[in-house]
Design brief:
This protein has 320 residues and is mainly α. The chain is built from 15 helices and three strands. It has a three-stranded antiparallel beta sheet. Helix 4 crosses helix 6 and helix 8 crosses helix 11. It is elongated and about 60 Å long. The protein starts with a helix and ends with a helix.
């Protein structure tokens, strides 16, 4: 694999050497992709920019950090990259994720007439495999809730963040992190999903308040939960806390003898799965999760009373 890769990189370098310096600079793949990332940042699409940066970093490692011409991106190179990812233990879905981002970047360069479309991604996998089940039954969530983790504060905190996500209908960790104290007014928690921009309203319940009381934040902090402490470094803090919390949840899963790996995202899947098991209408579940991708569903949901969703959530929380 290494000898093939070195040989390919040498041929790429030889081909690039034949072009004038200005043209090579204009058509350098890494440079072009960095420009795409910069534009995403300027448009406020931070999470998408981070995904592109992650894919770029992986591709740079594969090529030893040396930039390549857009004209050198071909089917053979991408097949080698796919084999490289597999050799490093990268999952099929993660490999496909990187490929789709690199393909989107390449297609943008084609649109800008910086290269001809050689269909370099024609033979690599860019689909999405079905993932393993990530939802827990109600009895498993109960087991997590009643674990005695008082002697392990880090695990205790991770467990409580998982429960808070579950209590709030599968709220994402990034939305939890950026919740402000003034988002909670008159018994209603209102926030805007960072992923979709959709406004979500949740009836405040006793179990939610118990977690807030357990982890009080300073008066100076604008945040509701003690996830972020320094607004200037919030993005790095969020990423670090997400990583640590998910790592600690793996230990929580062992303590609870759970059948699947535990992450914060499991809370979202579990809430939806448990709601479905209680015969709560799909339309109510979709609204509760903040989904907005199905146009026909949204036409119906536009007139749905929030109290219906709050009642559905109350039914689930009462059984814990």
């Amino acid at each position: 694999m290494k000898s093939i890769k070195k040989s390919t990189c040498r041929s790429i370098a030889t081909g690039a050497a034949g072009r004038n310096q200005a043209t090579a600079s204009e058509s350098a793949y890494f440079k072009f992709m960095l420009g795409v990332i910069e534009r995403l940042q300027q448009m406020g699409q931070t999470r998408t920019a981070e995904a592109y940066r992650s894919a770029l970093s992986s591709f740079q490692q594969f090529l030893g950090g040396k930039d390549v011409s857009l004209h050198a991106i071909n089917s053979d190179l991408m097949l080698l990259y796919e084999a490289y990812l597999k050799q490093r233990g990268v999952s099929r879905n993660s490999s496909s994720f990187y490929m789709r981002i690199l393909r989107a970047t390449y297609n943008r360069a084609v649109e800008n007439q910086l290269t001809d479309n050689r269909l370099p991604f024609k033979h690599v996998y860019t689909g999405i495999d079905k993932t393993v089940k990530r939802a827990l039954p109600l009895k498993a969530v109960k087991k997590i809730k009643h674990l005695d983790l008082s002697a392990k504060p880090a695990l205790d905190f991770a467990r409580d963040m998982f429960l808070f996500a579950f209590y709030t209908r599968g709220m994402s960790f990034i939305d939890m992190a950026y919740l402000k104290k003034n988002d909670l007014r008159h018994g209603i928690l209102t926030y805007r999903r960072r992923k979709t921009g959709q406004t979500i309203c949740i009836k405040w319940e006793k179990c939610m308040q118990e977690i807030i009381d357990k982890y009080p934040v300073s008066r100076q902090s604008p945040y509701l939960l003690p996830i972020l402490t320094c607004p200037d470094e919030s993005r790095n803090q969020y990423r670090n806390m997400l990583s640590r919390t998910n790592q600690h949840l793996k230990e929580v899963a062992l303590s609870a003898d759970l059948p699947i790996p535990l992450t914060l995202y499991v809370a979202r899947h579990s809430w939806a799965s448990i709601a479905q098991s209680k015969h709560i209408p799909l339309s109510v579940i979709s609204k509760g999760l903040g989904h907005d991708s199905e146009q026909t569903t949204q036409i119906y949901l536009a007139s749905l009373d929030r109290s219906v969703i709050d009642k559905a959530n109350k039914m689930i929380l009462n059984d814990l």
